[in-house]
Amino acid sequence: MPSKAWQAFNDNLRDIDRLLELHAEKGGTGRGRRTGLEVLNKSAIVLITSFWEAYCEDIASEGLEQIVAKTKSSDVLPTAIKKLVARELVRDQHELAIWRIADDNWRPLLKSRLEQLREKRNRKLNTPKSDDIDELFRDALGIDSVSARWKWTKMTAEKAREKLDGYVSLRGAVAHRGRGLHSVQKAHVTDYLDVVRKIASRTGGAVNAHVRALTGQRLW
Fold it and tell me: Where are the domains of the chain?
C-alpha cells in the first residue's frame, strides 16, 4: 500500500490530467500550436508546483511521525537531527533546558520540528527547488541530499535537478509576470508532470528506506 502522501499527490494530479483533457477537447490532438489555451498550460504549471511542494511536506511529516513513534531510542537518530536539536537547546538560555529531552521527551520535541521548518520556509519565501527540498529532508529527517536519488534511465540526478528548478522558476514567472511571460506550451506541462512524478516516487523511496534503517519497519 502506498504512503498517504503518495495517494494524496496522485489524487491532486488528477486536476492536471483534467486540464490536459480540456486542452485536447478544445484544441484537438493534431500537430501545431493552439490559440486561447495557454491559460490551461500556465494553470497546470502552477498547480504541479504546488502539489509537488505539498507532497514533500506530507512525506517528510509521515516519515517523521514514524521515526518518533517507532524508533527505540534517540541513540539511532541521524547525526544531522541530533546536531539540530542540540543547537536549539544551546540557544535556550534556561539552565534546565537539557531536561526537555530527558527520558522520551525528545519525541514530541522532534515532532514539533516539522511545523517550525514549514514556518521558516514560509518566512523565507522559499520555493520547492532542489536545494530547498534537500534542506527540508535533511533538517526534518536527517536525509543527506535526497535529490541525489532523482535518477532513472537516461536521466541523471543533476539533470533532474535542473529540470525541476527550471519548471519551478517558470511557475514563479507565471505567478509574477502573467501575460508578459514567454509562451508556456502543453509540452512543458507534460514534461513537468512526468519529471515530478518520477522524482516524487524516488523521494518517497528514499524516505521509506531511511525510516526502515532507523526503525526496522517500512513506512508502507
Answer: 4-215
SS3 for 155? Answer: strand
The closest of 44, 2, 55 to 21, measured between CA atoms, is 44
Residues 6 or more apart in contact with residue 68 via CB below 8 angstroms: 107, 108, 110, 111
Handedness of CA 164, 119, 82, 211 (dihedral sign): negative
Angle subtended by helix axes 130-141 and 38-70, to nearest 10: 20
Stated pTM of the model: 0.85
**Could you tell me the three cell numbers for 133?**
527540498
User: Distance between CA 216 and CA 210 in Å, rounded?
Assistant: 10
Q: What is the pLDDT of residues 31-54, one digit of tens each?
A: 555 556 889 999 999 999 999 999
